Amino acid sequence: MKSLSRYRKQTLYMLFVTLPFSIIGFVLSVTFTALGLALTPLWIGLPILHATLRASRGMMRFDLSLQRGLLAPGVIETLPPPAAPIEFRFRDMFTQGKLYAPLLYWLLKLPTAVLQFAAAVALPLCGACIVLSPLVYVVLSRYGIEIFTDDLVLDVLLPTLTAYQRSWIASGIGLAMVLVGIGVLRGLAASSVQWLGGLSAAAPVASDDSKAWIPSPESSYPTA
To answer: Which of these, 117, 121, 115, 125, lies nearest to 174 by C-alpha position?
Structure first.
C-alpha cells in the first residue's frame, strides 16, 4: 500500500507540480539574475541580484524536499544531503561561485521536468484511462456508438475477437502501462534528486572561491 501511495504522489507531482514550478524557477532565476547583473553598475542591481539568489535557492530547497518526500526511505539514504540555507552579503555574490548553484539547478531542472511530465502522462495517466476500456465500451454501446470495430490494426491482430473482447485486451495493455510506470517514475524521481541535488551539496568554500559551487565527489555518496 505504501508503494501505491508513493506512486500516486509521484504521478501527481509530475503531472501538476514539476513543470509549472520548474518554469517559474527558470524564469525567475534567469531573468532576474541577468537583470541584477546588468544593473549592478547602477547599484540598484545589487539588491535585485541578492533577492534573486535567495529566492532561487529557497525554491530549489523546497523542490528538492518535495521530491525527497516521494522516495522510499532506503533510497533517501543514498542521496546527497539536503541543501542548507546560506547567509551572504553583496560582495559575496562576486567572490563565491557556489551562490549561483541554484541558477544551474533551474537551467537543468526545466528539461528534466518536461521528461517527468511526459512520462507521467504517457504511462500512469494514459494507462489508467485505457484500463477503463471495457466500461467505456459498454457505456458508448448503449448510445449506439461502437468502438473497437472496423479497425485495420485490430482486424489483423485479433480477427476472431468481438469488440467487447478487444476492449479487455486494451484494458490489459493499459494495466501493463501503469505497472511499467511504477518503475519509470520511481527512477526519474530518484535520479532527479541524485543528479540535481548534487548541485546544492556544494563543496565548502575554500581559498579558491571560483570553484566553490562545484559539488564535491564525496557529497554525492553516503558516508560510511
So the answer is: 125
What is the value of pTM for the model shown?
0.80
Whether the pLDDT of residue 137 is over 80: the answer is yes
What 8-state DSSP symbol labels residue 85? P
The SS3 call for residue 99 is: helix
What lies within 8 Å, CB to CB, of 198 at 6+ separation is 80, 215, 219, 220
Torsion sign over Cα 42, 47, 52, 54: positive
First-to-final CA distance of the chain: 31
- The CA distance from 113 to 116, in Å, is 5
Per-residue pLDDT averaged across 49-70, rounded? 92
Report whether 119 contacts 184 (CB < 8 A).
yes
Is pLDDT at 107 greater than 60 in this prediction? yes
